Structures are given as C-alpha cells and as structure tokens.
TrEMBL record, chains A, B:
Homodimer. HAMAP family: Glc6PDH_archaea (MF_02046). Pfam families: Epimerase (PF01370). One of its GO terms (molecular function) is NAD+ binding. NAD(+) binds at N84, S109, Y146, K150. It comes from Halalkalicoccus jeotgali (strain DSM 18796 / CECT 7217 / JCM 14584 / KCTC 4019 / B3). PANTHER family: 4-EPIMERASE, PUTATIVE (AFU_ORTHOLOGUE AFUA_7G00360)-RELATED (PTHR43103:SF5), NUCLEOSIDE-DIPHOSPHATE-SUGAR EPIMERASE (PTHR43103). Residues 5-176 form the NAD-dependent epimerase/dehydratase domain. This is NAD-dependent glucose-6-phosphate dehydrogenase.
Length: 248, 248
C-alpha cells in the first residue's frame, strides 16, 4: 500500500499498538477527535467521524482505511454507540467509497459474539481441551449494546462491499494487552491479542487481497474458542504469540 | 395469548394484512404515528416509536408485541432508517423488556439478505429447479440501507433475548401482495407472501413457544430460495398458498 493510509481513532489502544510497530511502514494520516498527547507519524487530522464533510476531506487520496474510532466501552450506553459506532461507521465507509478507497479494515470486537459465552459453556469454553469454536460464519450474538454496534458495522461493511466493491475486512479484536496476557483471567487468555500480533494482523489487512471477510483477532493461544484459520487463509496472518507460552 | 397484543405500525401493509383476518382473535392495542383512516379493532395509540415514554406507556400490561413500525421504503435514506428502524426498534424492544412482555415478533425483511441475489445467481435463483436456499442461519447481506437496518433489528432481538430472556422471532417478510402473486415478476413470485399466510404466520408468532428465531415469511411457493422449514418447525407455520397455483 503506497497511497496514504487513514487510521481513525489513532489515540485508542489498538491505534497505538499499530503505530508503535508500523510507524515507518506507511504514509499515515491519523484522525481523532482530540490532538495527540505525544508525537505521531504522518499527518494528523482532528475530526469527528460523524461529520461527513470532515471525514470526506480526510479521505482524499487515501488508498486504505483502518477504522478504529468509536466509543470503545463495552458498557457504553445506546445513544453513544448509535451515534459514534453505528452512524460513525456508516459515515466513514460512505466517505471511503466516495473517495475511491480500495481497502477498508474495520475494528469489530469479541463483544459482537460475547453472548455465545453462556453459563452452560463457561468456563470450559476458555480451556484448551474444549472443542467449541467460532469461525466468523456464525450469526452475531452480542452481550451488550456495544457489541450490537460492532455487529452492525460488520453488516454495513458487507453492504458497502456488495454495493460498491470496497474490499472490507472486519477484525473481531480479542483482548489486547501490552507485554503479557491477562493473568488469572481465563477468558482474557483465551482471546489474548499481543501488540506484536495486532500490528501484524492489521498490516495483513493493508497488504492482502480480499473481498469481504470477518476474522478473529487473537494470538495463537492454546486456550481459544475463536478460530484464526480464516485470518491465516484470507490474510496470511501468522501470529507469533501464545498466552500459554508467555514468560513475564 | 390472552393479554393485550401491541401492534406497532398498524396502518402499514403488513399490519392491515394481519388485522383483516385476526381482528377478533386478540385484544389489540394498535400504535401508529397518525390516526387510522378507517375503523380499527381494540385501542389505538398515537405515538412515535422513537419516544421511549410514549412506547413504554403503550406497553403497559401487554403480553406480546408485533413490531412492524419503521420506514418501509427499500430506498429509504440512512438518516431515516437509523432513526426509525434502528433506534426505533431498540426503543420498542427496551420498553417491551421493561414492561415484562413475553413474546416479540419483529418484522424483518427479505432486504436483509437481498445481496445474495448476485448477478451470477439471478434469475436462476428464482426458479423451482434451482437449489440455492437461504435458511436463516446465514449472515445478513443487505442490498440497501433499509436491509442493514432490518439486520440490525434482528441483532437487537438476539441481544434482548440473551440478556433479558424475551422470546423473539424475526420474520423476514417476503413480497406481500393482496389477492394474487406478482405477475411477470419472477423474484416477486419466489418470495410471495399471501395475506392469508401472512396473518397465519404472525398468529403462529403469538401462539408458539420459542427462544430466538429467524424465519422466512413467504407462502409455500414452487419458486423459492428461502426455506420455510424453520418457520414450520419452530412456529408450526402451515402456509396455504403457492404463487404457482394461484388462479386469478
């Protein structure tokens, strides 16, 4: 990807994980509602993703988008996810299509399928010998309104792909923590995504050729109930970390 | 169902098909934004479904909801489906849960999966000998923003079922026409839903016991690419009409 890459929500946790490792690899255009707290690579645009004109201007000349912006709180109230996550994602995707963007990576979330973790399945589902596995072809099953908003973003991506031929990949991001996996928290270990694997996965989203994909964004953990096969096949994802093997 | 049934969007086409045949069968509470043009059974509430307080008041004592209200236009702009269909459905479902409603039938649409009708598949997909079949377990694939909004309503239903144990059935309504199926229109014949079968299907939604279901709402047409097996199994749906057998 030689053209500029627009990264929305650059000041969030996923954005920092990506930029920490890929700052020099792309011609970045970063977008967030507030100015950055520290120095960032490339150009910085202060904009609200629900403002079409601002987003459309930031989209000019862009080859690919990594769309992370939105309310990241699992417990966020409906009004906020309706505006920031659902309407905001529609705005960013529409502006991308209007600007002729080729590839669009959307940060979806494990919360889009959180309610598969029923009482009957947990905690066994988090353990290596359990066979329950989601692979991205299942219907969404959100455990909160934030998850509903992420599932809707995936459906919007499907629509903009089918209607406008935008390449769209939805990454159901797991539990991103820096340095080491969550301790004493089986669920977090099962869906751990290391910073290294996170940056690599989004780099794959910028480099691979795809139509429309839903993939799980976790490291190659022994504990897992998300399949990473589709990320490997469609994107060439090759994770290096495993929550079971991590030394502090 | 002995308790009152709240039917939102009673003045729309689906609402009239239901009330024409089931007026005397239930204790109806009808809700729409404008007063009815002709006499209606039961009680009539004038309210906007995006107003929680109005909807919550209409929900008092209700045993089941048939939620049809929303912008019904396949070409409706995003702002309208965001407000009326996505936010409106969230409001009605939340009010239903808060009022202790047991069953909730949501009028989804064939447009939630309209983009499965690709150029490569059509028009063969509309013909009796074609084997392509959607059964409700597939991911949404909307052909327009209206379809995105209906897919989101389905996901909201999943959430309210998982979180609050509301019984939810999403009916992907086909092509509802009165009297006879669409003529010289293969797609319309493939997804025809007669008025008689429509009323029967929503009656099943009020009478059957279910957790969360997505079913297709079409008659038993020879031409079809929607399976009605799940509607038969989960709801006891037993359609009487078939677009191929209809005499004018």
């Amino acid at each position: 990807m030689d053209a500029p890459v627009l990264l929305t929500g650059s000041e969030g946790r996923v954005g920092r994980a990506i930029l920490d490792r890929l700052a020099a690899e792309y011609d970045w255009r970063l977008l967030d509602r507030e100015p950055p707290a520290e120095e960032r690579p490339g150009e910085f645009v202060i904009a609200d993703i629900t403002d079409y004109d601002e987003v459309r201007e930031a989209m000019e000349g862009v080859g690919a988008v990594i769309h992370l912006a939105g309310d990241p709180r699992p417990e966020a109230p409906w009004d906020s996810v309706l505006r920031n996550n659902i309407d905001g994602t529609h705005t960013v995707m529409e502006a991308a299509v209007d600007a002729g963007v080729e590839k669009f990576a959307f940060a979806s979330s494990n919360h889009a399928v959180g309610a598969y973790e029923t009482e009957a399945r947990t905690p066994e589902i988090y353990r290596p010998d359990d066979e329950f596995l989601l692979d991205g072809t299942e219907l969404p099953r959100p455990g909160n309104r934030y998850g509903v908003s992420k599932a809707t973003g995936e459906t919007l991506g499907r629509f903009f792909h089918d209607e406008h031929d935008l390449s769209v990949v939805c990454v159901r991001v797991g539990n991103l923590t820096e340095g080491h996996p969550p301790e004493d928290y089986e669920r977090g270990q099962a869906m751990w995504l290391s910073h290294r694997d996170c940056a690599h996965l989004f780099e794959c989203c910028l480099e691979a050729e795809y139509d429309y994909e839903i993939v799980y964004g976790i490291s190659d953990n022994d504990r897992k109930y998300y399949s990473i096969e589709r990320a490997r096949e469609a994107l060439g994802y090759d994770p290096q970390d495993n929550s079971a093997e991590h030394d502090d």
